[in-house]
């Protein structure tokens, strides 16, 4: 695959209310995906990428990447897949997430089946993707795409986005954050680096409040500062230097700190 020219789009989610809410034609329905939708979601996304003049040229690389991304995020509590259906068939998909290691909030992009393109479905899903992210508590949303793609030209410029040219996009050929080289979340307010093992990172959390999820069981030791943690099914707890908290695999959790915190996180596979 030739060197890709990446662009980034960023939305201030507070401004979404300034725009009119798009309306679906009456033959379509809007739904949040359920478990039985997973297979058809993957098929719809891959076929939509094939119709793009940019992405279609490298579908052999895109198909396994998107399949892995969808499978690895579908059941995560911070992720949601929004669908448009026609006669009970999925014809448009948008995967959204509060947090992803690639530092973007649109997991699949806006994917519309070829027969149903140019009917307003992309605009409709773009708005509701941003609205869903706003409702989850995010202030800003980001996405990356290749310069010249349909999304770059027609979809992502909608709803007050800011476009940034010639950016670097963090990607991994296996769509797998472990082994982790560098995690970059919440506009850089939370960052971590892999250390001399694929199962641990050392990181810094800037003062603030954040939501995370644990793909694997996490054992987190506080190295500097104090961190308030809302462990699943427990009350808020304050952890000081040297103390360890444990997050079960598959759960989301919240943290808060008034000053910067440094931590060591071990992943238990």
From TrEMBL:
Gene3D superfamilies: 3.40.630.30, Jelly Rolls (2.60.120.10). Its EC number is 2.3.1.-. CDD domains: NAT_SF. The keyword Protein biosynthesis does not apply. It comes from the Bacteria. Keywords: Acyltransferase, Glycosyltransferase, Transferase. Residues 28-187 form the N-acetyltransferase domain. One of its GO terms (molecular function) is purine-nucleoside phosphorylase activity. Coiled coil: none annotated. It holds the Pfam family Acetyltransf_1. The keyword Transmembrane does not apply. GO terms for cellular component: cytosol. It is an enzyme of class 2 (transferase). PANTHER family: PYRIMIDINE/PURINE NUCLEOSIDE PHOSPHORYLASE (PTHR36540), PYRIMIDINE_PURINE NUCLEOSIDE PHOSPHORYLASE (PTHR36540:SF1). This is GNAT family N-acetyltransferase. It comes from Abyssalbus ytuae.
């Amino acid at each position: 695959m030739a060197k890709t020219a990446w662009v980034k789009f960023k939305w201030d989610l507070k401004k979404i209310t300034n725009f009119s809410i798009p309306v679906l034609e009456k033959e379509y329905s809007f739904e949040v995906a359920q478990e039985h939708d997973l297979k058809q979601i993957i098929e719809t996304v891959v076929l939509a990428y094939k119709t793009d003049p940019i992405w279609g040229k490298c579908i052999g690389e895109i198909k396994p990447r998107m399949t892995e991304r969808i499978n690895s995020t579908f059941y995560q509590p911070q992720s949601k897949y929004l669908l448009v259906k026609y006669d009970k068939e999925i014809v448009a998909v948008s995967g959204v997430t509060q947090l992803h290691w690639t530092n973007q909030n649109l997991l699949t992009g806006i994917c519309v089946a070829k027969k149903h393109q140019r009917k307003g479905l992309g605009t409709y899903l773009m708005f509701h993707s941003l609205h869903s992210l706003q409702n989850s508590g995010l202030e800003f949303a980001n996405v990356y795409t290749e310069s010249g793609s349909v999304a770059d030209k027609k979809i992502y410029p909608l709803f007050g986005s800011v476009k940034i040219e010639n950016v670097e996009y963090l990607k991994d050929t296996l769509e797998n954050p472990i082994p982790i080289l560098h995690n970059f979340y919440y506009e850089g307010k939370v960052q971590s680096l892999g250390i001399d093992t694929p199962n641990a990172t050392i990181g810094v959390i800037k003062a603030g409040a954040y939501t995370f999820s644990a793909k694997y069981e996490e054992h987190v030791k506080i190295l500097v500062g104090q961190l308030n943690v809302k462990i699943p099914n427990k009350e808020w707890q304050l952890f000081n230097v040297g103390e360890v908290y444990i997050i079960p695999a598959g759960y989301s959790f919240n943290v808060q700190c008034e000053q910067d915190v440094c931590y060591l996180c071990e992943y238990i596979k």
